[in-house]
């Protein structure tokens, strides 16, 4: 039993060569010849506990994305193209329909209103098919998810700033995403960028390992609520920073838990911003949660409310009285002139900001740090090694279990409220939301946060760049590329049909055989790529940044 298992050794070799250890068997059929073959495609997992090679590949791709957009000195995206005559005609026709509908409503001709609504819907679909973004206007007679159940009504909250938050200057936003250029005394110019870390407030004194000194005085409730609403606080911070600075600040970062298990965020910022401004904006940023009060928990997990089929509502298990509906609870908040938000999220006093010069080791170290834990599960970032840490995690999770995450969360039943669009399948304390899981520590949103104009490319575009670099290095050309318009754009002709193969299909071999074939193929590809890189280095000593940061041929084949 002390001897290593052959299967485990095979997976270790696959991991070493970057071969996916749980590939998807896809059947590819050539539409010209009818030839069918089974091809293994990588699973594309982003976590090491599922597939280390795919997670490592994703991490390198994120590093390339951050590196390409951090210190660029030009605008990544051009402005929108001018509208075509067909697009203008559709919008003009949409305006005529809106005018006709308004006249029909004034004349109480409701049959014509229904016909015009159908025509408006068809024109909206045509506008979207023509290539315009967004909607011309909101649809008539429908209710969006962010509105209440009552049609035609939308709740509005006051935008007046809180008295306990400092005021921020507001400048007109310039149409630029790059930072300032500085000139030294000798005439050289440079354009530095920044590295920023934002943390939440303290919930009580803690030990060096992150556990509280006095667990009874540690505010676990506020820690749970802050973790749930931390993504919205980050959004408010970037909105305030852009309004305060007067230009479209771009960022790329990640959200991770600290040792005390509270989330914090690291960001790479393009350009420079005074540290005092960053600290002032962080202190002035807050997010108010306008939800019903949760000061008193009326029911427990062992004895929750029950569903009444006849009333189609949740009722008290003893009195059979229906619980307060979500609309009634929000109406009570609107009618109360002295109403306060149920929770206010703020940043802590610790704001770490420093400048980073492009092309330095400090910049590469920051990129590695921001992507250090993106391949790990949130709960695996900091291992629980002691009983004190385990008890701290358990207390936080117990509070997260009963913390409402959305307006439709079943946990509202514990506080005597029926959530929005309540139904009989709700289970208090067992919400399927990501924030309630023990392994997420309340971090339910995206962990990688990259602004839209960071590099001007999507993740698929960065993958294509890596493949193009490998093909150019090896001298490989692609066939079947035909122009699709008069502007030189090309697209690969569709000649294959794909479908997922079943594991019990006769042409799908055992997983170990497929792994061994992939490992052998990957080893030969790697040898070819290394030889091509040596030849390119001898022919051109100064390799480009893209060539320097290229990936292995085998890791980017699919």
TrEMBL record:
It comes from the Bacteria. Residues 541-550 have a biased composition (Polar residues). Residues 161-177 have a biased composition (Basic and acidic residues). Residues 130-184, 534-558 are annotated as: Disordered. InterPro entries: RepSA. This is Replication initiation protein. It comes from Micromonospora musae.
